[in-house]
Design goal:
By secondary structure, this protein is α+β, with helices and mostly antiparallel strands. It has one domain (about 5-135): Alpha-Beta Plaits, CATH 3.30.70. About 40% of the residues lie in helices and about 15% in strands. It is built from 8 helices and 4 strands, in the order E-H-H-E-H-H-E-H-H-E-H-H. It has a 4-stranded antiparallel beta sheet with strand order 2-3-1-4. The protein is globular and about 45 Å long. The model has no long low-confidence stretch (mean pLDDT about 95). Bound molecules: guanosine-5'-diphosphate and magnesium ion. The site of guanosine-5'-diphosphate has 10 residues, from helix 4. Its cofactor is Mg(2+).
């Protein structure tokens, strides 16, 4: 299946540091297809919902205020195994443990300023896409490079 989708976000530090272009480029150059994109300033409630699994963690209040500190680029990327591969492109949660060549491994140092988010499972990707996007904001189209990227549909 080439139609798997993941939710990728460029966090406020990534936007403020001028990393929108470089982060998008890594997904584009890999061959994934952009299905949705917007610059947003979500509410505290929205961000608490997004990170609900982490609400008991000591860093949760700091995480929510970090995510509230500026605009976020919200995206949906599509392609074969994009959820798992998207996480590989982002790198480990803690940038100091991220390999060079990953986004976090190239652009970040602190776990609390790790510039990007990516869904961790297909199931969570579906939930996150539904939280951040209206159905009509996720665009379906044929990627012109499709047959050059995939051997089989
Ligand atoms: P991710 O899926 O790789 O983003 O990692 P998690 O889902 O475990 O955590 C969500 C986000 O919370 C991370 O991307 C970090 O921004 C933040 N976070 C995770 N662990 C820590 C921590 O130990 N300290 C701080 N300050 N932030 C953390
Ligand atoms: Mg996570």
């Amino acid at each position: 299946m080439s139609s798997e989708q993941t939710f990728i976000a460029i966090k406020p530090d990534g936007v403020q540091r001028g990393l929108v272009g470089p982060i998008i480029s890594r997904f584009e150059q890999r061959g994934f297809k952009l299905a949705a994109l917007k610059l947003v300033t979500p509410s505290k409630e929205h961000l608490e919902q997004h990170y609900q699994d982490l609400r008991e963690k000591p860093f949760f209040p700091g995480l929510v205020s970090y995510m509230l500190s500026g605009p976020i680029v919200a995206m949906v990327w599509e392609g074969r195994e994009v959820v798992k591969t998207g996480r590989t492109i982002l790198g480990a949660t803690n940038p100091l443990a991220s390999a060079p060549g990953t986004i976090r491994g190239d652009y970040a140092i602190d776990v609390g300023r790790n510039v990007c988010h990516g869904s961790d499972s297909v199931e969570n990707a579906k939930k996150e896409i539904a939280l951040w996007f209206k159905p009509e904001e996720v665009i379906s189209y044929k990627q012109s490079q499709f047959d050059w990227i995939y051997e089989k549909p």
